[in-house]
Amino acid sequence: MSKLSIIIPVYNEKETILKLLDKVDGVDFGNTEKEVIIIDDCSTDGTKAILQSIQYKYKVIFHEKNFGKGLAIRTGLKRASGDWVVIQDADLEYDPEDLKLLLNKIQTIGVLAVYGSRRLRKKLNKQHSGFFFAVGGIFLTFLTNLLYQTKITDEATCYKMFRTDLLKSINLQCQRFEFCPEVTAKIAKRKIKIYEVPVSYHPRHKSEGKKINFQDGLEAIWTLVKYKFVS
Fold first, then answer.
1. Distance (Å, rounded) from C-alpha 189 to C-alpha 13?
2. Which domains does the chain have, with CATH numbers?
C-alpha cells in the first residue's frame, strides 16, 4: 500500500490545531495510507499540552527551542516514511480535502512535484490576507518564473507535495519561512517540472495569528536570488 506523509509544523495554534487535525483525519485517500507528523516548535500558548495529550495518535515531535517553520519541516522530513510528502499548516487557511487533488496528480507517472495554487481557483482580492500579501505573492511568483524559467502561478502556497525521495535528496538549509522559495529554487534548478492544481484558501489576518511578515518577504526574495547562483 502506498503512503502519504503529512508534515504539520505548529507554533502557538491552540485555537485551530484540533480542528485542523479533525479535518486531516476525515480525508479519505482511498488506498493510500496516511502518516501525520506534527512538529511543535516550542509553543508557549498551550498548544504543547494539547499535543502531548494526543501524541498516541500521531507522530509528534517537540522542539525544545523555537527555531522556525523551515527547521520544523526539516525535522518532520527525517521521520517521513511515505512515498509522498506534503506540508500542511496548522491553521485553517487551507482545506485538507484539497490534498486529494494534489495526491491524484502526483500519482501520475513522471510527476515528482505538485503545488496547490490559490490563484487557479480564486480571484485576487479574495485569496490573501491583505493587499500587501497579495502583491507579495504575485511578485515572488513572477521572480521565480523569471529566474528559473518556471511557469507556476503560486510560488508561496503552503500546499507543496513531493516524492519523498526527491525532497530528502535536497540539501535544505531553511530555518523560517524561506522553505518555500528554497525548495522551489532547488527543484527548478534540477529542471523538475512543478505541476499545479487549484486549491481553496481562507486567509486569516495578523490579528488572528498570522505570523509571516514583511521581513519574511524580503528573506524570500533574497532566497530566490541566492539559490540562482549557489547550490
1. 34
2. 3-229 (3.90.550.10)
Calculated CA dihedral for residues 225, 156, 64, 47, nearest 10 degrees: 160
Mean pLDDT by 10 residues, the chain (231 residues): 97 97 98 98 98 97 97 98 98 97 98 96 54 79 98 97 98 96 98 97 65 80 96 75
Q: Which residues of 44-62 are buried (b: 16+ CB within 10 A; e: fewer)?
A: eeebbebbeeeeeebbbbb
Q: Could you tell me the end-to-end alpha-carbon distance of the chain, in angstroms, rounded to an integer?
A: 35
Q: Are strands 194-198 and 113-117 parallel, antiparallel or unpaired?
A: parallel
Cell 495510507 locates to 33
C-alpha 203/C-alpha 10 separation (Å) is: 17
What's the pTM? Answer: 0.92
CA distance 145 to 164: 24
Strands (E), the chain: 3-10, 33-40, 59-62, 84-87, 113-117, 160-163, 194-198
Backbone angles phi, psi at 5, to 5 degrees: -95, 125
Chain Cα centroid distance, residue 23: 16
Q: How many angstroms separate the Cα of 138 from the Cα of each of 9, 36, 70, 121, 152? A: 24, 31, 21, 15, 11
